[in-house]
Write the structure tokens for this entry.
Amino acid sequence: MRILVVGSGGREHALCWAISGSPLCDKLYCAPGNAGIAAVAERVPVGAEDIPGLVDFARGQKIDFVVVGPEAPLVAGLADRLEEAGIKTFGPSAAAARLEGSKGFVKDLCARLDIPTARYRRFTDAAAARAYVREQGAPIVIKADGLAAGKGVVVATTVEEALAAVDERMVARKFGEAGADLVIEEFLAGEEASLLALVDGEHVLPLPSAQDHKRVGDGDTGPNTGGMGAYSPAPVVTPEVERIAMERIFKPTVAAMKAAGTPFKGVLYAGVIVDKGRPKLIEFNVRFGDPECQALLVRLKSDLLPALIATRDGELADFDLRWHDEASLCVVMAAKGYPGDYAKNTEIKGLDRAAAVEGAVVFHAGTAEKGGRILATGGRVLGVTARGKTVEEARARAYRAVDLIDWPEGFCRRDIAWRAVK
Ligand code: AMP
Ligand code: GLY
């Protein structure tokens, strides 16, 4: 088969790494990819959000199957346009991608289906939103309705901060149209976890649990990021948490999307907060998490590609995936300054030494190659991932590999998986 992966981050490197090993894969392209992806796929100079460009490429190159990594092209209808052109695609339609693209849509769905989640109200009027914040008090959570590259959410610890967040979104329109509609919700205390499942429109095939570290600093301090590291499995996700998530979150959502004529196909990622052994939904994503994907895929024993195809084809009913019993862990290396401003085009050395550590794989996120040198071009730059018999062993291996990387302009958290290690 001729396969195209869309995207350029660590998640897409992990997807390409897994797919390139499939006996079903004859030729693998990645648009636009990164320097690490170039080792396993042919890069295509078409952006992940250039929908006409991607459809033209897939048609012209007779691509059999497209795997879409990021959410923005899905919300914009990439899967719809590819399928209309006769190209099978892993990833939901735009209508189904509203599960990530509109927080208001999800909150209304939760209310209708009695899905456990934070209490909320929706607003299109700034004065009403301010009045609600004053009435509820802090802590309180302010969310722009639409996609805002992970920056639309403020967990406000004071009323002043919450009011400023309302004004930034609704009045100053810091996130454009995404802020026209606001969700204001109750603050949930507890421990976060990432629950992912393949969904073929009807059936749900859960993947092992994972936990991400969203804050930039050790001990979960500082501003939110796209994710500074992840590990799998996450002990907070007990069998009971898994059961409740399946019965109360995944199954009702998938059934409702099907009944509405907008079946969800792809990977559905429920970000939950677990409190007293019970999960509540914080958000859905309609794609693999990054860096959860890196941690999960190094644990996968089965061939990923048939699973993605079965998801697209509605054939997950009897599908089974096999996983290594071992744990895994991914440490994100980012450019100093991230998630704020950071220097670009700094050189990274020692990648081969790092990759030679037992059980380790170095996934690239924001990298480019120039005259044989690897340069950092993004905020999140590498995902140093390892498997081990225990999470402690996976962690030791991942940090051993990190320490072999020579990149003075980079940094990472040193405490990934702190909740899981003794
Ligand atoms: P989201 O973009 O919805 O995932 O929100 C970003 C982050 O904000 C989440 O990963 C949580 O850490 C935090 N968050 C969102 N909603 C809530 C909530 N209701 N209570 C506590 N924390 C939240
Ligand atoms: N790691 C969080 C996300 O992918 O949204």
